[in-house]
Design goal:
metal-binding, 4-stranded parallel β-sheet, about 325 residues, flat, 11 helices, Cobalt-precorrin-4 Transmethylase, domain 1, 5-stranded parallel β-sheet, alpha/beta, isoprene biosynthesis
């Protein structure tokens, strides 16, 4: 019998669930406990199929628009945030609505609204079509915010008044890529105002920093996360940029491209902010089935952030 090849598996920390994701999932769970099934959820509560299927099995019904929800059942708004028109429509229909928007996304909404009220045109740094970007731009009247995705977009930006500008960013972007875009904005529009504290959330920053710490030491990186998860895709990009020769995104152990890892002697493993730890541990087990694995945890930060659930659900959480 041939001995299994040896493999050094570097486990990034922090990884996986952030406080905003944990809160959003808990909100759906508590809503099901309090009001029973079905509870409707506008958009995936977080971008992870495992989480969505688990909640669906308990009675959550995931829809894309409020039009797909009946008036007489609770509806939860996803962690990514929603345009202002959505809760307004829910109120018009007298629906029982619970907002699971991550508080750090809500912070960006408040910043954008404040700048708009003060007469500034908003530049949104984000990805077109991502629900968080749609939700943030939807806090403002149509056309009040301009979207940029790259430094090249900044070069062609047509603004109303270069002296009356402010920018906000999606919370799940690449820290380094966003710094380039912000630098381009400030170079072209020196008077532009930014957030008091950066909009990219602590969890995104920490997970990217952990990947940067292991990237120079590994032959390959595996990121556990959904293909529609912005922060997970950014981890793949960050790994490659930081010196890892190969990186792949997989939703679970069954999706890993094992052939692409042949010959690797050191592999990094992390997970996006909406991927549960049980998926990571299943991947570790899958590696152990194929290799003689030595695991080393590389911890670059300790997270102690917690967010409270909405008041309407707190009696359920007692």
């Amino acid at each position: 019998m041939t001995a299994a090849p040896s493999l050094m598996l570097y486990l990034a920390a922090p990884r996986g669930f952030c406080a905003g994701v944990d809160r959003a999932i808990r909100i759906v769970e508590l809503a099901l406990e309090k009001w029973g099934a079905p509870v409707y959820v506008r958009h995936e509560i977080v971008h992870n199929a495992h989480v969505v299927e688990s909640l669906r099995a308990r009675g959550a019904v995931f829809v894309e628009e409020l039009d797909d929800c009946p008036d007489d059942r609770p509806v939860v708004f996803s962690a990514h945030g929603v345009p202002k028109a959505v809760p307004a429509e829910a109120a018009r229909r007298n629906m029982l609505a619970v907002d699971a928007t991550c508080p750090l996304v809500t912070k960006v909404h408040i910043e954008a609204a404040r700048h708009h009220e003060q007469g500034r045109q908003i530049v949104m740094v984000g990805h077109a079509g991502h629900p968080e970007t749609v939700g943030t731009m939807g806090q403002l009247p149509e056309g009040a915010a301009l979207l940029v995705e790259t430094p090249a977009d900044v070069a062609t930006l047509e603004v109303r008044d270069p002296e009356r500008l402010a920018f906000v960013t999606q919370t799940t972007l690449s820290v380094d890529d966003t710094a380039e875009i912000v630098a381009a904005l400030k170079a072209r529009f020196p008077a532009i105002e930014g957030p008091h504290r950066e909009d990219i959330c602590y969890a995104t920053t920490n997970r990217q920093a952990a990947v940067k710490a292991i990237a120079p030491r590994i032959d390959a990186l595996v990121v556990i996360g959904a293909p529609n998860s912005s922060n997970s895709r950014r981890l793949v990009e960050v790994g490659r940029t930081a010196g890892c020769p190969y990186a792949q995104l997989a939703q679970n152990a069954g999706e890993i491209d094992w052939r692409a890892l042949e010959g690797a002697r050191s592999v990094g493993l992390t997970a996006g902010a909406s991927a549960p730890e049980e998926l990571v541990q299943a991947v570790v087990d899958a590696f152990r089935e194929r290799y003689a694995v030595t695991v080393e945890i590389v911890e670059t930060a300790v997270e102690r952030v917690e967010f409270r659930v909405p008041r309407v659900l707190r009696d359920s959480a007692a």
